[in-house]
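Appendix B: complex inputs.
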Amino acid sequence: MEERPSMEVDIVCVGFGPAMGGFLTTLTPALAEFPEAPQVICYERADGVGFGVSGVVTRARGIRQSFPDLDVSQIPMAATVKQEKVLYLLDPVGASRRSKPVKALDAALRTAGHSDRFAVELPYTPEFLHKTNGLILSIGQFNQWVSEQLMMTGMVQVWPGMPVAEPLIEDDAVTGVRLADQGGMPGMDIRAKLTVVGDGPVGPVGRKIDEVLGTPPGFERNEWAVGSKMVIELPDGVDLEPGFVLHTMGYPEPEIFGFFYVHPDRLASAGIFVPSWFDNPVRTSYRYLQHFIQHPYMEQFVKGGRLRSWGAKSLMESGRRGEPFLCGHGYARIGEGSGSTNVLTGSGVDEAWTTGIQLAEGVIELLREKAPFTRDNLDRAYVTRRRSSWIETEGRAAEHARNGFQKGFIRGLVGMGLAGVTKGNIVVHAEVKPTHERVGTIEDYFSDRIPREEIAKIREQAKADGTPLHDLLMDRSGWPPIEYDGQLLVTHQDALLMGGKVQASGGFEDHVRFLRQELCEDCVTQICVEVCSGEAIAPNKDGGNVPVFDKEKCVHCGACMWNCAHAVDASGRTNIEFAAGGGGLHSAEN
Amino acid sequence: MANSYQVVVCGGIVPDPLQTLEPVAGPAGPALKNEMMLPAVLDPWAGHALYEAAALARKFPGSKVYLVSLAPKAKLQQVMMTIAQRVPLELVALDGPGGGFTDSAETAAALAGAIQGIAGLDRSKLLLFGGWESASRGAGSTMQMVAERLGIVDQFQGVDELQIGEDGSLRILERVEGGQHQVSVCDAPPALLGWATGNLGEPANNAQVGMQNMRTIMPSLQKAKPTQLKSGIAFASVALPKLQRETRIVKDASVDEIAKEIADWAAAE
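Resulting structure:
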C-alpha cells in the first residue's frame, strides 16, 4: 500500500445528517466575518447526501429556528402536519403474540364495539406525542435541499461517498480523522483543530472515541430499534390530505409501533419500529412491515398502491442514557450518536438538528474569542448551551420513560403515560437489558406453537437453502403467507431493487466482520441473520456456522451490531464489528 | 510530440441509474416522474471520457482538463460533490435543462459557445472529449455537432483507446461494425474523441483532489450562465422497454424447467 497522505483543515465534520445540517447551516453564514475564513469540510459515508436516511414527522423547532421563513413547498415531499391520530390496532389474523392483559384489552374493545377495521382511535393524543405545526419530511430530500444551500455559499464542502474509518487520537485529544482505505489506496488523514462527530449511533468514529477515551458514569446503550419504512404511491380513490399522520400500536405485535404519514403528490410513508425489547429472535422488520400495511385499517389507504422505495435504519433508543462525553480536546459530538433522541416524544431529527445549532453557536463564539477547541472551552461554549436548553430538559424527562416495556407492553404504555404526564418524575422502573442478555432461543420462543423437532427440521431446511428462518417460522406459527402482487407486496430481495437500489461502492473492505468466529460457530440464534434489513447476512450453507456477508445488499442500518447474541467484553461490545464502508441504499426519498 | 494537452470534456448529467425511472407526459413534453427529486450522476458515457482525459493529463504534465456541463445548476452541484473528488478538473457550467428531451443541435450550440469562451484555449493542444452517446438519449449526434461548430474535422466515435505517438500523433481505437476495432492515426490536435467505454475504471475518491477542485467549481456554478434551448424538435412520447415483474417462489424447479418457462414466456411476448 502507498504511503498514507494527509492534509489539514480547520474543522472536519463526520456524517451529513440532520445534526450536521443544523451545525453547518448555523456556522456557515458566520464564517465570512473572519479575515481568513476557517476551512470546513464534511465527509459523508453514503454515496449521496440524501441516501440511507429516512423520513420523519417532527415538531421542527430547531429547523424553523434556522429557517424562520421556511417555504415548505421548496422541499420535495415536505408537508406541514395537519391531522394526527393515535390508533390501537387489533390482531385481524390471530397470529400476533399477545399477553393475557393484551388479549383482555382486545376482548374488551371488541365487546364494546369500539373497533372499526380492527382499530381503535384513541380519543385524544397525549400532548407529549403531538407534532402540531410540525413537518413531515423525507430526510433524503431535506438533506439534499440543505446541502444545496450550504454548498452554494462556497464556505463549506460536503463530500459524500467518503467513509471515515476512525478518529485520530493522540493522548486524550482528537486531532482529526482517517478516511477509509479504498482500492488499495490508503485513506487520507485529515488533521483538524476541531472534529465534529455526527456519524450517528452506529458510526465508527463516535464508537471508537467512546472505546478509547471512555464514557461517562451511567452511560448505557442497551435500547435500540430498527425502523423500516416504505414510500408508497397511494392508489386511485384514496385522497388523503398531505400532513395526515397516524401513530399506531398493537399490531403486528404489541411491541411493534407503526406510523403512516402523507406527503404531497399522493405519496405516503408507512413504517414500523422493531425494538430491542421485542423478544422474538427472528425479528424481521421487512416481513412484519408487510403485515402492518395489510392490516385492514392500513389497507384502506394503501391497497392497490405501489411501493416506490423501501429502507431501514437503526435508532438508538437509550436516548439521554446513551449520552457520551459531549466534547473533549479537539472534538464535539452532536446528533443521535450524542444521545439526543427523545424516546418519550418519539422524536430525533428536531433534537439532532438543534444540537448542531448549539455546537455551531459555541464554535462561532470560540472563533471570535480566538480560543482553542479544548475540552473546557467546548464545554463552556457548547455543552452549557445544551444543558440549559429543552434538549436537556426533555431528554431527562424521557430518560426512563420506556423502561416499563422491559416488563411488558401494558406496563410500558403505563410507564410512558406516567412519564409523559409527570415530565419524567414518575416512571415504571425496570432493568433495561441489551439484546444479547434478553433474547432467548428460538426453540423457547416458539415452544407454545411449534414442536422442537419441527423447528430442527426447519433449521435444516433454512441452512440448506441459505435463507433466514423467519419466514418459515412465521408461516408455521400462523402468520398468513405474503401474497406477492409485484406492486406493493414484493419479496425482500425485489425491494432491494426498487426505488433507489442497493449497491456497494467499489474498493472498500467488508464493513461487517464477525470478530470471534468460534462464538458464531456455537451460536444457535443468529439474530444477525434474522434481523438483517437487506438480507445481506445469510446462513453459511457451504459449511460451518459463521454467517456470510454480502456487502452488495447491505443498507448500512447497523442492526446486526446491536442484535448480535454475544458480547465480547464488559462494555457490551458485541461480536459483530460494524466498520466504515461505502455504498448502500441509493434512495433519496426513503 | 506535444508537451501538454487541453482536454475539454462535454458531460451532462442523468438520473442515478440505480433509480427506478418512469417517463411521464409533462406540459412541455415528455419528462421523468419526479425528475427533480431523483439523485443524478455524470452521464456514464461522459464519465468514461472524463476518466480517460484525467489519465491523459496525468501522463502529460502541464495538461489541463475542462468539464463543460449543461444541466440544472442545483443538480449539477450535487453531481460535482462526487465527481470533483475523482479527477482534477476545471468546471465550465451552463445552467439549463438536463435529461434527454432536448434538441441535440441546440445543446451542441450552447456547449460550443461555452468552449469558445474558455480563456487561453489553444487549438493546437485541444482534444474534445465526450460520450459517443448518452444514457438519457443515445442520439449520438451532439458531440459531432459541437466539433463542427468548433471547426474540428478529425472526429472519432466509439473510441476505446487513445495512444500518443513519439511524434505527437494520436493513435485511436474506434469501435466499428461486427465487434471490430478500427485503428486510425491522426497527426495532431485538434480532434474530437467520442468515447465508448474506454479501458479505465472509476477512480477512487481523493479528498485532496476534491479540495483543489472546489476552488474553481463553486465560483463556476455561482456564475453559471442561464441557458435556454430553443425547442427545435418535438418529442411526442417516450416509454421504457416493456418490463414486467413477476415474482413467484417455486421450489425445486430444475434448470430445464426454468429455461423452458423463460423461453415460453419470451415466445408469448
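Chain B has one domain: 6-226.
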